[in-house]
Design a protein that fits this description.
Number of strands: 17
CATH topology of the largest domain: Rossmann fold
Structural class: alpha/beta
Number of helices: 11
Number of domains: 3
Strand content: 25-35%
CATH architecture of the largest domain: 3-Layer(aba) Sandwich
Largest sheet: 7 strands, mixed
Radius of gyration: 28 Å
Length: about 350
Amino acid sequence: METSRTVKAYCLKVPKTSGEKAVSLAAKLGLLNEDLEVQSTTGDLYVPLKQEPYFEHVAEFERTLPRFDILIHNFPRRVKPSRSLLEILGDKLPPHLLASLPRAIDFVGDIAIMEVPGELEAHKSLIGDAILEAHSHVRTVLAKASTVGGVYRLREYEVVAGSPNTETVHKEYGCRYHLDVRKVYFSPRLSYEHYRVASQVGENETVIDMFAGIGSFSILIAKKHRNVKVYAVDINPDATEYLEKNVLVNGVQSRVTPILGDAKQVISDRLHGRADRVIMNLPEKAIEYLETACEAMKLGGGIIHYYAFAEGLDSLEVEKKRLIEKLQSMGREVEAFLSARFVREVAPFKWQIVLDIKIH
């Protein structure tokens, strides 16, 4: 049966011992269908043809091949190797501009997001079209038009190629996330962090995700653990709307509770003293919410995943000392730093870092 991935076509069926000769002959006669893959069985080879062979073609087969059949067979389409951005634009931009092509492109679902250097500003539509050609799954190419900012941590984008629709579905570690990149904060570069934190959670834990966004941490935790309770808090109404949808789509509604509101107020009003683990993915302002994270902890303490921006090669040690002093001023004690690592570079000598802190 023909499907979108397979095609019925005329073919030359020959013994495998005559396979190379049959392929060469079909190509010489202009009959070889290079869009389809040659197929084989235990002893035979099926060579796809562009059309039913004419009488003179059959006569040539008879002269050259000891045994053959002409029949119709189901062939898979040949997967054509995609060309790189550099290959596509090689003859369209001068060498000094090719050297400035974006090296890092973020893929969120079927949307590609790039940062365009100033010298390439006039060529961004050309680059966008090349990205669509190089990546067949992409339908929209966006250029960053601002930095991340505001209470909701949003960024402005310009559509440079493809569809103007900026809503998509992103897949990560078996989870599906609906989102609109213009309405919510999401970074595919945090994919490993989502997995790393989710892998540390134990059964029967209560987790508070203070800045949950569309649910990248919360939903993966709930997918990996059957006996957990996750409170996913976010101040952005659009993010919370997508979070609620993603909870349902991923079937974790019994384990994840979405809450719209500022984490400080929500924890004070509803979640004081409930958490075994708190996730603080708000690197711009996490230090301002540290006391709230402590208030969310159970009386015996727990673990905080604390994200921040820091500069300098010694930034991890500097941030450790800063947190020890801050927590001591709140009457809390750091039992151990379970992990301290650079997550990603956000500017020259500036990183997003994470500290996993076990506190009393």
